[in-house]
Design goal:
single chain, alpha/beta, 19-stranded mixed β-sheet, disordered N terminus, At1g61320/At1g61330-like, At1g61320/AtMIF1 LRR domain-containing protein
């Protein structure tokens, strides 16, 4: 009979766990059984801070009751805004008590500190059944959350599977002590928690599958990354923001000695550490079975980028510099290619089955005919394309539309699924439309997401364009424009609306700038 009662409580708590905190609390009025289930709920979630209904005293009262009644806590999730040192000390005490619960399996802390510092208790890893620990501290005030581990109590050596530290200042010795003790880790995330390290050592972790590391290099000396004996590693990301712009290339020990430790990695993400062909050769030899590759090319030194892979299906290149003019990828299995940067280099995919091309450009230079000709060639490489174009300074377009038409080798592409467009600090762009007059010569996008100017929120060039060219049918001063004649009809909707509406004069206030901060989707139906 006792087991049956427990089963009912577990069923009720299972239902409560699928509800929001407010909805789950409301179930306590249904009956005494529901009240008992809620009052002994083993998964505690608290969201405390500015503008929140829950206060520090509510957390204190709940934890005192759980401690008094010896009620199990399996999961502890705390999101808290800490405004003073007294609140920080109080939260430290709560976490220390909860962390010693032998039944605790997961602990998640999201700490937002305003003018206070917070030290994670040494008992943070004291539960012998702890599977997952997540500590996140947004970098409003760097180095405000500390994990010193002066007298560490690590009892989860055989249970810990996931370790996530974000914005937590941990010493090099403390981190290596944790990794040396907890050999069964499967996922490690160290995000902005390794600043100032001489060496990051990831060694002898036979079950590790995913490893994510990012940090800001605050010193002129590079941080070494030593990885060995991680035979199951399948996902690896490494991002380093170099404050001094020393451009240290990626060095992973012992990849340069041809170790097989990381050869099973299938998803690789490297940010701002790839500089030249030597780095690419390291990737080819060290990671032969890649399916997905993401590279940040902020410090790429060469004008060409040539890459060959027999296994890659998804390739992402972001932060491409304007000096990169030629990009060739030999990848017969490539399905998705995603590129972002200052301009679009010449693209070549000699052998591929590309299905999706995504291009995101933050343009700061003069746009001429070569830009549109190059873009049209790129659009012919894939079945579907998405474009995101932002002008980070007042738009400078120097284009002869008639000359562009004579130089184009193909009709307008019809495979552009979505175009996202925005300007920055452009005050008078709606008075003329050379960019879109040329753009619609190379493609007819199905959907356009028009954002207002980043600084002048009354200005939305594409909205003004639709008003003048489609509704008012006015002529331009740049020559004869043909593209409005190929539009059957235009539909419009705001992002939160579910229904498309035919563009009519009733939408004039959205288009002429009378309504600021208007974000609109346009569905374009072409002949």
């Amino acid at each position: 009979m006792r087991r049956e009662v427990e089963d009912v409580v577990e069923l009720m708590q299972n239902i409560q766990s699928r509800l929001t905190v407010k909805e789950a609390a409301q179930t306590s009025v249904l009956s005494k059984s529901w009240l008992h289930a809620w009052s002994t709920f083993p998964n505690l979630r608290f969201d405390v801070g500015r503008g929140k209904s829950m206060k520090l005293v509510d957390v204190e009262r709940t934890l005192v009751r759980y401690h008094r009644d010896n009620t199990p806590i399996k999961k502890f999730d705390l999101k808290i805004d800490i405004e003073n040192q007294e609140s920080a000390s109080q939260a430290e005490k709560w976490i220390g008590h909860v962390a010693t619960k032998t039944c605790l399996k997961e602990i998640s802390l999201s700490l937002l500190l305003w003018g206070a510092s917070f030290r994670l208790p040494d008992e943070i890893l004291a539960s012998e059944n702890l599977n997952k620990i997540r500590v996140s501290a947004p970098r409003i005030h760097p180095n405000s959350v500390w994990m010193t581990m002066t007298n560490p109590v690590i009892k989860c050596v055989s249970s810990l599977r996931e370790l996530h530290l974000e914005g937590v200042s941990i010493s090099e010795e403390a981190l290596h002590h944790i990794l040396l003790s907890c050999r069964l880790l499967e996922k490690i995330e160290l995000l902005h928690s390794c600043e100032g390290f001489k060496t990051i050592k990831i060694k002898n972790l036979p079950r590790l599958y995913e490893l994510n590391i990012s940090f800001v290099s605050l010193y002129e000396n590079s941080t070494a990354l030593e990885i060995s004996d991680v035979p199951k590693l399948g996902v690896f990301s490494y991002y380093r923001l170099d404050v001094f712009q020393s451009h240290f290339p990626l060095v992973i020990e012992p990849l340069n000695s041809h170790s097989i430790s990381m050869r099973k990695v299938r998803r690789l993400m490297l940010g701002d550490v790839i500089t030249d062909n030597t780095c690419l050769d390291m990737i080819k030899s060290g990671f032969p079975f890649l399916v997905s590759l993401t590279l940040g090319l902020t410090y790429w030194k060469l004008g060409t980028f040539h890459f060959t892979s027999s296994s890659i299906k998804r390739l992402v290149l972001h932060s491409c510099p304007h000096t990169l003019i030629d990009l060739q990828v030999h990848a017969p299995k490539l399905l998705i290619f995603d590129l972002s940067g200052e301009t679009l280099p010449s693209l070549s995919f000699p052998v591929s089955s590309l299905k999706q091309l995504r291009v995101s450009l933050g343009i700061e230079r003069l746009v001429d005919a070569s830009f549109f000709l190059n873009m049209r060639e790129a659009l012919s490489l894939s079945h579907k394309c998405d474009l995101d174009i932002q002008f980070n300074s007042p738009l400078d377009v120097n284009i002869d539309i008639d000359d562009l038409r004579t130089r184009l080798m193909f009709p307008p592409a019809t495979n552009v699924q979505e175009l996202r467009f925005q300007t920055t600090e452009d005050e008078c762009m709606w008075e003329q439309s050379p960019f879109f007059d040329a753009f619609f010569e190379i493609c007819h996008p199905k959907c356009v997401y028009a954002k207002p100017d980043d600084h002048f929120n009354h200005n939305n060039h594409f909205c003004r364009l639709m008003l003048r060219e489609v509704l008012e049918k006015k002529t331009t001063t740049t020559g004869i424009v043909y593209w409005p004649h190929y539009l059957k009809h235009v539909q419009i909707k705001q992002p939160l609306d579910q229904k498309w509406e035919t563009l009519t004069n009733s939408h004039r206030s959205f288009l002429d700038g009378s309504t600021p901060d208007v974000y609109l989707y346009f569905n374009l139906n072409w002949c």
